[in-house]
Amino acid sequence: MFSTKSFFACMALPTFVCALSSKVGNRAPSVCMEAVTLDATKNIWLNYTLHPQDVYRTHYLAAANLINDAEQKERALRVADSGTFLWLESEGDIPKIDQAVKDVPCGNILGLVINGLSHAGCDEATGRTPWQKRDSTHYIENIIMPIAERIKNYNTTAFALIIEPDILPFVVRNPYHKECLQAQSAYRTNTPQAIKALDIPNAITYLDAKHGGWFGWNPSRTNYDPKDVARELTATWQAAGSTSLTQFRGISVNIRSYNSWDMVPGETFTDENAIFFQSD
Ligand SMILES: *[C@@H]1O[C@H](CO)[C@@H](O)[C@H](O)[C@H]1NC(C)=O
Ligand SMILES: *[C@@H]1O[C@H](CO)[C@@H](O)[C@H](O)[C@H]1NC(C)=O
What we know:
Layout: H1 4-12, H2 15-21, E1 49-50, H3 54-64, H4 70-80, E2 86-88, H5 96-100, E3 108-114, H6 139-153, E4 158-163, H7 168-172, H8 181-197, E5 203-208, H9 227-240, E6 248-252, H10 273-279
Parallel strand pairs: 1-3, 2-3, 3-4, 4-5, 5-6
Bound molecules: 2-acetamido-2-deoxy-beta-D-glucopyranose (2 copies).
């Protein structure tokens, strides 16, 4: 949906530019020039479209260009025009924001998933070691502050932020895994600070709540009280300033590698079928 602002911006441009902007692969630059303030008490998705950001879009377009079959190619190009959140998990990822803001029109919102908090000390405890350990000591300083600075600076861009420290399950079941004390303390110190630092007028924030299994929609899956997750999230929100936060919108679930809400049949991922069936 177009906001009034972008509608007039489009009207002011020559017709061919507007026509081009709706064509895949030929996106016209129609960057928003007005300062944005988002009202987190409302459902901003009614007025904003998730931006098909250029960082991933470039890859989709390159891949689509390798397809010879016209119908398949068109489908691939449609993916390039679908909105996606940009995943940020290291200091090196942060400059991607500079690329992604370059072509966001007033009616679009740029989505960022902010990962990057350490799981140090927990990987071994669960017998799963594919995740990279990170030093969480400087998470706020090295990850959150440079992102917050950019969001403030890019005040003509609307942002939707998912704060996804990625260690919530370990934090919550810490009584079962004493090795996770370090992760628990990193989460409880850093996450509220991150929510507070990202409480910026042109952004709305969501705190990640992992997936339906952890959130208690599949009680047979876990051996802890699912209410603990809700309690942990509430405590995080309170430590961040609770009602003094103006841009906090709520929680997010199923951010990566989990089922889509509305696909029939649903997607299946290793070990996650139960999650799909629960939410179906
Ligand atoms: C969406 O925009 C319309 C028109 O600008 C406005 O009246 C309405 O309140 C907005 N809705 C939300 C949820 O922000
Ligand atoms: C927006 O940010 C610019 C710097 O990028 C600053 O000069 C300007 O005052 C800001 N405007 C508002 C309304 O905050």
